[in-house]
Amino acid sequence: MAHEEAPASASQRIIVRNIGLMLSGDLEKPVLDADSILIEDGIIRAVGRAADMPPPEKDDRVIDADGCAVCPGLIDNHMHPVAGDWTPRQNQIGWMESCVHGGVTTLISAGEAHYPNRPRDVVGVKALAIAAQRSFSGFRPLGMKIIAGAPVLEPGLTENDFKELADAGVTLVGEVGLGRIKDGPTGRMMIGWSRKYGMTSMTHTGGPSIPGSGRIGADVVLEVDADVVAHVNGGPTALPDDELRRICEEGTRALEIVHNGNLRSGLMVLELANERNELHRMLLGTDAPAGSGVQPLGILRTIAHLASLTDVAPELIFCFATGNVARVRNLADRGVIEPGRAADLVFLDAAEASAGDDVLDCLREGNLPGIGMVMIDGVVRTGRSRNTPPARRVPK
Ligand SMILES: [Zn+2]
Questions:
Q1: Per residue in 51-77, pLDDT tens?
Q2: Greatest Cα-to-Cα distance within the chain, rounded to the nearest angstrom
Q3: Could you tell me the distance, in angstroms and rounded to a whole number, from the CA of residue 45 to the centre of ligand 1?
């Protein structure tokens, strides 16, 4: 496995033209009245109509999208990294790189819980979190951005430990419930400390996933009050519907639907959030690697499931894996197509032979779209995806 360091960003100016459908990632305005993007130093500088863009200069690169759609790079809010692009859960290598071919440009750790014989003492928990944060911050398989170092809570952690972790660059807390802290009062206290030092957090929700984890029900989820109700649809075993309803109605935090969960429960939560006008709470993740494997197309498949089996518009569902995650995770530098954000862009279209006219129709039909190109930090990382079905139109 060769993993060269990806170039940080393209300094060449890029003008993307002829975009047929621009999905912003922002729930307030999910489709932009625009067909062009100007990129410089890996950052989106302007979004608008072709007439609003500066005329191309000699050294500019012009990309013709040929009428396909563009969305922000997808952010998987829930994955479990261990070391580089290898997972011992399925003894598989190259799974992160393969996710780039599924349109995912950022992975967020929900805890390095699969690390063999993971340390459970306080100094070991902190050491593993800092080592993971350091390692993955500079490890970019096919340009993928990996945010890792998510300590799994164990007894004995003090407020000062969270301060030390935050000072060392750790920004996440792994799923509460994967370690020995499984009760509401202790979880709430530690999550309060983590929040004080700017870290974002999540609570495991549902039945036990791997040995050592436990059942975390609505009472504990609500009391801990972490930023994200991780796999509200189970990881993989979902809570009974009445407990899910309580989490939606009595809580205010983000609700994450994962690919490796219970689809029926996920649909129920999404419909409830939609009725309550709370789509800003919805996030998507895969929870990969898991017992059911790794899914390079897991986020796209979840979007297709939700778009085809609920009344929620597909352009809104894209926001659950882009702008909503960026907002909840304090990633103001990505997740939305607007000036100042990273040029992490997915060029996609209806799959060849799918019913309907465009990528939104394709998703409403329940079909996976095709990806024609993925750009991260303004650098083209893939052409036609090796994993999706072929897109009708691809950039030139
Ligand atoms: Zn979990």
A1: 999 998 989 999 999 999 999 999 999
A2: 63
A3: 38
